[in-house]
Amino acid sequence: MTFELHPRLAADSLHLGDLPLCQLRLMNDQRFYWLLLIPRLADAIEVTDLNEQQYVQMWQEVRQLAEVIKPLTSADKLNVATLGNMVPQLHLHLIARFKSDAAWPGPIWGVGSAEHYTDADISQLKSALQQACDHLPIHWV
Q1: Which residues contact 92 (CB under 8 A, 6 or more apart)?
Q2: Which pLDDT belongs to residue 83?
Q3: Can you list the positions of beta strands (E) in the chain?
Q4: Domains and CATH numbers, the chain
Q5: CA 47 to chain centre
Q6: CA dihedral defined by 102, 120, 40, 12, rounded to 10 degrees?
Q7: Cα–chain-centroid distance for residue 113?
Q8: Alpha-carbon Rg for the chain in angstroms
Q9: Recorded GO terms, molecular function (predicted)?
């Protein structure tokens, strides 16, 4: 079987690039600096579906991005979560949180309506992320 992105993830996010294991996506909601990492593996639902090497690689990619995102955004807190209640495909959320954001201090899920990025906003965000991640093995799209 081959990797196929869940339709809900495809509809709600924008493909930024690919790391060695995971697809890097931006949730299309400018209220939050919200990235997704989705291992490009068929039928991965739980972290326990990964072999040891894949598991280590996934968390290495999470750590590498987290080390960039928090200082890049000056976030008060960086949330890293795997839920999968609505979308069963294994995916990780990396969310820069701010005391001033629309959902602070609670979870962001179900708060208000998404405010989509403009093309200019996406381009600016992606450019800043590319510069900050220039040392990481990301193939940008």
Answers
A1: 22, 36, 37, 38, 58, 62, 80, 81, 82
A2: 87
A3: 13-18, 22-27, 33-39, 77-81, 92-97, 139-140
A4: 7-101+112-133 (3.30.428.10)
A5: 16
A6: 50
A7: 19
A8: 14
A9: hydrolase activity
Q: 92 forms bridges with which residues in the sheet?
A: 37
94 burial class (0-12, 13-18, 19+ CB within 10 angstroms)? buried
Per the CB < 8 A criterion, the answer to whether 23 and 40 are in contact is yes
Residue 51: which residues within 8 A CB-CB, separation 6 or more?
none
Q: Whole-model pTM?
A: 0.95
What's at 51, amino acid-wise?
N
- Helical ranges in the chain per DSSP H: 7-12, 52-73, 119-132
Joined tokens for residue 119: 């093309």
Q: Give the whole-angstrom CA distance, residue 69 versus residue 133.
A: 9
For the stretch 46-97, pLDDT in tens is 999 999 999 999 999 999 999 999 999 999 999 999 988 889 999 999 999 9
